[in-house]
Amino acid sequence: MVDKSILPEFDGESAYSGALRFYDDSCSDWEYEWGKLYGSMKPTFKLFAIDAFGTAYGLLSDENVAIFWSETGELEPIDANLEEFLGMILEDPYTTINYDLYISAVEHLGKPSFHEHFAFKVELALGGSLSVDNLTIMDSTKHFHSLAKIAFQINEIKVGSSIRLITRE
């Protein structure tokens, strides 16, 4: 069992003041509510965390971590187990979970609840900026609905095509 309490401000549910939220085996929301939105793009991993921006983290069958980029439906395997991955976050939370952006967003927009995310008004995959001005607070279920719609539309576009319109709820 990995000791998540090594992370700053770990309270049993989250770390880094809520920037990284943990889920346990009893969490059915991902499998049922959010996971089904992605259909064939749904990652086959064991979810353990979602950051405050809606990026999901899970364990693959080989016990290595993978990142699920919710706005593109891309699953990115990381060559690290859970303990090593938490060490990466501990070493550099600014790059791994955008902790500096999270702190700025909390200062400007308020702290989202455990069931809310900071959502990009224009998603990064669509050219949006990684800035507080491009963020709003959104219910996490509604956020995943929007992200799944974007992911399906992006996956239907051929590489090199220009994007003119992406619909979002």
Automatic annotation (TrEMBL):
**Matching InterPro entries:** T6SS_Tdi1_C (IPR015002)
Q: Quote the protein name from its UniProt record.
A: T6SS immunity protein Tdi1 C-terminal domain-containing protein
Protein source organism: Moritella yayanosii
Q: Which residues form the T6SS immunity protein Tdi1 C-terminal domain?
A: 81-148
Q: Which domain of life is it from?
A: Bacteria
